[in-house]
Amino acid sequence: MQAARPDAPPAPIRPAATVLICRDSAAGPEVLMIQRHALSDVHGGSYVFPGGKVDPADAGLDAQARLDQEPDRLHALLHDEDIDAATAAAIHVAAAREVFEECGLLFAQGLDAEALRQAAALAAAGVAFNDMLGRLGLRLDTRALRPWSRWITPLQALSSPGKRFDTRFFIAAAPAGQHARHDAHEAVHSDWLQPRTALESYWRGDIVLAAPQIMSLAHLGRFNSVDAMLAEADSRPPCLVRPHTFEIEGMRATAYPGDERHPERIRVMPGPLRLVLRVRRLEPPDGFDGFWR
User: Fold this and answer.
1) Strands 187-193 and 13-23, how do they pair?
2) Partners of 168 in the β-ladder
3) CA 46 to CA 199: how far, in whole Å?
4) Whole-angstrom Cα distance, residue 130 to residue 132?
5) Residues of 132-141 as b/e, b for ≥16 C-beta within 10 angstroms?
6) How distant, in Å, are the alpha carbons of 79, 145, 169, 207 from that of 85?
7) Of 9, 13, 115, 284, whose CA is between 20 and 30 Å from 199?
8) Dihedral angle at the C-alpha atoms of 163, 169, 173, 174, nearest 10 degrees?
9) Quick check: 28 and 188 in contact, CB under 8 A?
10) Is 0.70 surpassed by the pTM of this model?
């Protein structure tokens, strides 16, 4: 992990969206994670949740015909007065589009197996997401996407130097009757993982995770069902996380709201208040158990 040069001009912040797609299992809730291609310019080789940048075309979708909720309602759900309703709608479209492009899951109303097959065939033929929805007469199911958190990359990020994002994290139950398949292009592997199992694999060095994924897994690991996750999402605004990077005892670290080194002193999510970079691994100061205190 490298940081951007201290004297480098601030990188522009780009809007993005990602989705924590969860399902219940006999052993507990699982979340879908995909492994980015090693040559990806953002989190290359890391395990992430499906998502990516908001594209200009996301704002061009016919909201009246292709969304199940009015843009004003989507705006209210994001609890962000600095954007307008059209931007809020575009963020929701980006979340659904990225999930479909990266793992083949489509959040759309009244979707049957044949419509899903046609959607996949049109995408494989190079038909754009908006056009595919129009040809099949589909309306996105934005109600399935609950705002969960919002992560804004700090100036001196500990990973992907020079890249900054304002990323809205949504949470959703896996759509019934659909099967996730990574695209074998941007994503080279995918798996359903229990949050604690994913963090244990990270701790052993089997997988690579960036800080937002680490902290999100620590958050999800506190729930015993997908319904409980969705109920929490419905009960509060999305938590705003602006990590603060600093150095301590010769190591780089990231503090989160509530930590004594963070300018925002009110905790906004469970899990550790600080991650320290030790030998290329971000970890709580008190070790693995610190994820769960």
Assistant:
1) unpaired
2) 17, 150
3) 13
4) 5
5) bbeebebbbb
6) 11, 16, 18, 38
7) 13
8) -10
9) no
10) yes
- According to DSSP, the residues that pair with 34 across neighbouring strands are 48, 190
- Directed axis angle between helix 71-78 and helix 85-103, to 10°? 90
Residue 154 near residue 242 (C-beta atoms within 8 A) = yes
User: CB within 8 A of 198, min separation 6: which ones?
Assistant: 31, 33, 47, 207, 209, 217
* Residue whose entry in the numeric block shows the structure tokens 């940048």: 53
Taking only the tens of pLDDT, the chain with its 293 residues reads: 444 455 556 678 999 999 999 999 999 999 999 998 665 656 667 899 999 999 999 999 999 999 999 999 999 999 999 999 999 999 999 999 999 999 999 999 999 999 999 999 999 999 999 999 999 999 999 999 999 999 999 987 777 666 899 999 999 999 999 999 877 677 778 899 999 999 999 999 999 999 999 999 999 999 999 999 999 999 999 999 999 999 999 999 999 999 999 999 999 999 999 999 998 899 999 999 999 98
User: Residue 33 in contact with residue 22, Cβ under 8 Å?
Assistant: no
Amino acid occupying residue 146:
R
Best CA proximity match to 130, nearest among 52, 64, 67, 60: 60
Q: Which of 64, 51, 55 is nearest to 105 (CA)?
A: 51
Q: Which residue has the tokens 């937002």?
A: 212
- What are the tokens at 202? 């990270």
Which amino acid, residue 18? Answer: T
Tokens matching residue 141: 């199911």
